[in-house]
Amino acid sequence: MFRKVPGYCFGKYKFNANIINKVSTLLKIKPSLANEDINFFGDVRLLDSQNKLIGVFACEEARKKADKLGQDLIMINQEIKPALCKVCDYSDELASKFMNDIVKIKEQQKLNDQHFKLSHTITMQDLKLKVNQAKDLIKKQNNLRVTIVCPIETAIQAKSILYTLKDLCQSFMIPIGDVKTKDYKEKEQFDKKKEQQEQVQLDIEFEAIEKTELNLDLAQIKIERLINQYYSRSLQEKTEDEQDLADFFRVQQTEKDKKVETKETKKTKLEELMEDDELDFQLQDVSTNNQSCFLRDGNLSKYVKLYKMIEWSQRRK
Fold first, then answer.
1. C-alpha to C-alpha distance for 224 and 32, rounded to whole angstroms
2. DSSP letters along 185-254, please?
3. Cis peptide bond N-terminal to 82, omega within 30
4. Which of 172, 108, 173, 183 is nearest to 140 (CA)?
5. Where do the Translation initiation factor 3 N-terminal domain residues begin and end (predicted)?
6. Whole-angstrom Cα distance, residue 201 to residue 148?
């Protein structure tokens, strides 16, 4: 259930209670009481939007100061003395945190995961075309990783290609560190008889000289749509995690039940021998714990075998 939070009439964004609760859930923070919802009658320490102390005022006076500034009064912590309040545009502050702490980081991670791959046999003409592609790509993201996978014998040639690329791209991006080399293992091939050639992977990372910032200044309808998308995605991920956990415990329980069932149904060698149709016998003297048997068919070898099993069973006890 969403906690009831009022809408805010100040600032650029004017989020309703539903959006504020969704943003707070995504940011993993508790929605703050604000404006008329603050039922507090003591003194409060008042901070401005830059978290600088304005002074200590009665709560009603602090509310009037917020009204004069055309901003919201939000309660940060009323458990301390004096309580802590802040004057700010609450919806704008939540929107800024959402864009910087969630959207910006997610988008940057998505872009950074993209690899710019080159062949170790690339020609100079094709390399120049790749430079133009890298220039377009670096405008969308601040970092770019270039990768070459090649046989170990051509590693020096591949390294030379990366250094050439670095020289050709120095006008719009600069390398972060030097070329890194590591062993590369291909996925298992269908033809296992075919010998896999020993390969290495060479990587070099670049960063843009002129970094582009993600556009955080969105219209209210767009940012609300973005909040709803991220919130729905988080609920879906949570449901999938819960399902995976439930499946895991179900498998564990099934395996446990199988073990118990196997333990219950598992019979001793003596019991298996006793149920054997070829061994026709009867046990007696149970009260004295002396076990003897009578064979109807008079087969001595079967009797000896059974007698040994009885001895083995008694020793186990």
1. 19
2. -PPPPS-TTSPPPPEEEEEEEEEESSPPPP-----HHHHHHHHHHHHHHHHHHHHHHHHHHHHHHHHHHH
3. yes
4. 108
5. 35-93
6. 6
Torsion of CA 262, 264, 268, 273, to 10 degrees: -100
Distance CA 289, CA 285 (A): 6
- Structure confidence by residue, pLDDT tens digits, 81-106: 889 999 998 888 888 888 888 887 77
Residues 6+ apart with CB under 8 A from 307: 293
Tell me how far apart the alpha carbons of residues 144 and 103 are, in angstroms, rounded to a whole number.
19
Q: Which residues pair with 292 in a beta bridge?
A: 284
Neighbours of 232 (CB within 10 A): 11
Residue 268 near residue 313 (C-beta atoms within 8 A)? yes
3-state secondary structure (DSSP) of residue 158: helix
- For residue 118, the tally of other CB atoms under 10 A from its CB is 21
Grouping H, G, I as helix, E, B as strand and the rest as coil, residue 30 is coil
Give the DSSP H or E segment for 43. Answer: strand 43-47
Helix residue ranges per DSSP H, 141-184: 155-168
Is residue 265 very low, low, confident or very high in pLDDT (cuts 50, 70, 90)? low
H or E stretch including 75? strand 72-77
Q: Which two tokens stand for residue 84?
A: 């802590």
Asked if 199 contacts 189 with a C-beta cutoff of 8 angstroms, the reply is no
Which DSSP string do the residues of 276-300 spell out, in sequence order? -TT----EE-TTTT--EE--SS--H
Among candidate residues 95, 89, 50, the one with its CA nearest the CA of residue 73? 89
Calculated CA dihedral for residues 126, 130, 132, 137, nearest 10 degrees: 160
From CA 214, how far away is CA 183, in angstroms rounded?
A: 35
Cβ atoms 64, 71 nearer than 8 A: no
Tell me: the pLDDT tens digits for 270-309? 556 555 555 444 444 444 444 444 444 455 555 566 666 7
